[in-house]
């Protein structure tokens, strides 16, 4: 079961960053800041923004209270959903439990920022305008930002700088280890089993299926397995270069190690301490960002983001229980169902030569 290891998340209760947070001033976003919608997920919306000439974000600090240049940042705002967590708690969890696992330059950093009066109301009005113009994704319509959240999060901007000709690769590594409740003879990893089950449901409902890579390919010793996985990632130029960068990548392998240490998942995880379970699920639902310069002599940059606690509130715990039970009882792990004839999962054994069907861009 997942427990906090001494060599990765040590002395969490006395973490100086977490303790300092209670006393340091929260930076303030100045009046007149203009947000520009960039992207959104189920729980948050990310904005680019500009601040008025002559103003700065006051009180911006990082590390052990040392003043720092702001650099390129994005603004993340919280949606009003049942499973939403106040941002102050989000940052406390991140600083206390997630930050000690990784180097600073391996993470999409985040820091609380106080929002001007009326800022969220303005953003929600713009979301409704975007909906009227069919500019907002259809599956996000009708859900707006929480007007009860007084803070936003300033996060590291991994988007390419204007004019740089760099590109951004983005993907979720997901479960880099098998579920502890999977059968011993499983021919599908947890992520592939779940995807195939969801595709079965989608076919029955007449909805499109989704294809993706096997997470176990990402941590494979074989370069071709990693290259195979990159077919399904959102990115731009340099596919083979990205695959070479990800092959035995230290940050990716560290994430796998952290998942092994924090393994309160599957059916055993339902009975674990809620904090162990939250950390374990968080490590399995983060996003990896890889910024790729056009110049092949320049280094690639990788960071992990979306590391908010998956607490299990808002019906999530019940969903996890029902999902794992269904994966086991309906045989999705076994890979023997008639609708599982082909799979990307590396556990099934030999797969087709992806080079014959996938274009590999340089």
From TrEMBL:
It is an enzyme of class 2 (transferase). It holds the Pfam family Ins_P5_2-kin. GO terms for biological process: inositol phosphate biosynthetic process. It catalyses: 1D-myo-inositol 1,3,4,5,6-pentakisphosphate + ATP = 1D-myo-inositol hexakisphosphate + ADP + H(+). Keywords: ATP-binding, Kinase, Nucleotide-binding, Transferase. Its EC number is 2.7.1.158. Belongs to the IPK1 type 1 family. Phosphorylates Ins(1,3,4,5,6)P5 at position 2 to form Ins(1,2,3,4,5,6)P6 (InsP6 or phytate). The EXKPK motif is conserved in inositol-pentakisphosphate 2-kinases of both family 1 and 2. This is Inositol-pentakisphosphate 2-kinase.
